[in-house]
Amino acid sequence: MEHIQEPEPGQDGEELGSSPSSSAKGRRGGADQPGGFADGGPADVLAAGPELAALLAAVAGSDGATLATLGDQEVLGVVAAGGRMAAWAAWVQLAGLAEFARRRPGVMSNSRAAREAAEEAAWKTGETWTRMMDQLGRAVTLARRLPRTLEAMRDGRVSDYKARIIEAQTDGLSEMDVAKADVLLAAAGQVKNPAGLRDFARRQVARLDPDAATRRKERAREDAYVRVWQEDSGNAGLSARQMPAAEAVIAWQNIERRALDLHAAGAEGSAGQLQVRATLDFLLGRAAPGQGACSGAHEGSRPDAGGSACPDAQPAARGGGRGGWAVNPVLLVPWDASRGVPSGPAELPGFGLLDENDTMDLLRAAGDDPASRWCLTVHGQDGAAAAHGCAPGRRTLDAVTGTGTAAGLAGRLGVRLTPLAAGACQHAHAEPGYTPSRTLRHLIQARNTRCAAPGCAQPAAACDLDHTVPWQDSHLTCECNLSPLCRAHHQIKQAHGWKLEQPEPGVLTWTSPSGLTRTVRPRSG
Questions:
Q1: Are residues 393 and 299 in the same domain?
Q2: Predicted confidence (pLDDT) per residue in 401-446, tens digit
Q3: Diameter of the chain by CA atoms?
Q4: 157 and 277 part of one domain
């Protein structure tokens, strides 16, 4: 497979400001008039600060009555502007704490000095000293290591929550590498939602320093723990933190599988309730439901932790042992066929990115099981999927770890690659019926690996395969009229006032009832 190049910020499937509405109401007036808050209007793009604060005060008024006179886009613009001011307010506090830390020598090197400084700050703010200790550390870190991110907070372009994501993901980088990451991530944070930013940050960190994630993971394991606590309801909560990723993933899949077995055996309860019971079964050593009680019961299920181009043709062991898989988990691996190793972080949709060690552990577990299935998607230079095919039958890990080319890998696996439509669709893979075939379904899910709604990270295999133009109106089941939509966005698409178009295969343009437009393009990760 060809190496996937990261898109520039704003050029992937999260083009959050790609196509602002051009309605007359949204464009009238300057920043000091209500219309200035419409999508793309002068006030809508104004950086946080005194001017924006004054405009918000004028529009919202003391009782918010003026908001009732605004159009939908203007009200949403006010909401977004309030978010920018919240980021600015967080910057004010962090900038003040950084200055306060500068006046207290030893705050970052002496735990007693830090505790005393945090106590003073807690007295003034009414927060706990532990909260202010955290904020002091963040303030110094941002000022010293992530100045571009801090500047973006000052302008209201990056929220405090996104800044925390950037801090966490860059924690293990050297001073030189973190300076590079700061530029990229401060820009990405202005156009990506938190999930997209976290994913982008992990990929950038892996590119700058492939060992950084491993070092960070190993350090965090020193703080591993299992904790039980009382919920507000009187029930109990139980969590384990900083577990080895590969083993935790397999454990979770086994819990899901056991929950499905319980359901098939007639146990009552929601999916979550049965997952809790399954967890307790494993921990307390209780016997599983009768052997074979759930054979095939999970067919067609859409587990939250799964998802890819090939939900029914990927590693999916039916066993429940330590090394087994369950419930059709899917691992997406960017593969360097010339070296026979991953070319970058793999992804378990619904879980996150995995380093090479965890990836190989999971691939070995999959390769050892007779129910494992493998598929191959070849990507072009632009990172978009170009062709896709599935290997028949079982393949061990040795079958894909030899060196060669992508074509050679396809030959070894016995994969027949099918090109994906791009640009003007020729309907080469159109089908007459409503339900797409397995081959067509895989092509769509290889092209759009996530829900095709702006910012949604739901895996494609956990989504509905939706006809953009309803089948009863078009009778077209084709690459240019299908896309994966999670159940929530499928329902939104069908709601009054919403419009979805697919001008070319995989390119989805959404229009909201207030006239906002957003375009989502195929993405490989």
A1: yes
A2: 777 787 888 888 888 999 999 889 999 999 999 999 989 999 999 9
A3: 74
A4: no
DSSP annotation of 300 reads T
CA distance 512 to 94: 36
Whether 356 is covered by a domain: the verdict is yes
**What is the separation, in whole angstroms, between the first and last Cα of the chain?**
14
User: How far is it, in rounded angstroms, from Cα 228 to Cα 2?
Assistant: 45
Same domain, 34 and 182: yes
Residue 8: Cβ within 10 Å count: 11
Residue 350 backbone zone (phi > 0: left; psi -120 to 50: alpha; other: beta) = left
CB contact burial 241-273 (16+ within 10 A = b; e otherwise): eeeebbeebbbbbbbbbbbbbbbbeeeeeeeee
Residue 84 sits in which domain range?
A: 15-220
Asked if 395 and 444 sit in the same domain, the reply is no
Residues 259, 300: one domain? yes
Question: Within this chain, do residues 176 and 255 fall inside the same structural domain, yes or no?
Answer: no
Domain membership flag for residue 247:
yes
pLDDT single digits (tens) 134-179: 999 999 999 999 999 999 999 999 999 999 999 999 998 999 999 9
Same domain, 93 and 181: yes
Q: What's the rounded Cα separation, in Å, for the pair 269 and 513?
A: 38
Q: Is 298 helix (H, G, I), strand (E, B) or coil?
A: coil
Domain count, the chain: 3
Q: DSSP strand E in 340-485: where? A: 341-342, 346-348, 352-354, 375-379, 385-390, 418-419, 464-467, 482-485
**DSSP one-letter code for 289:** S
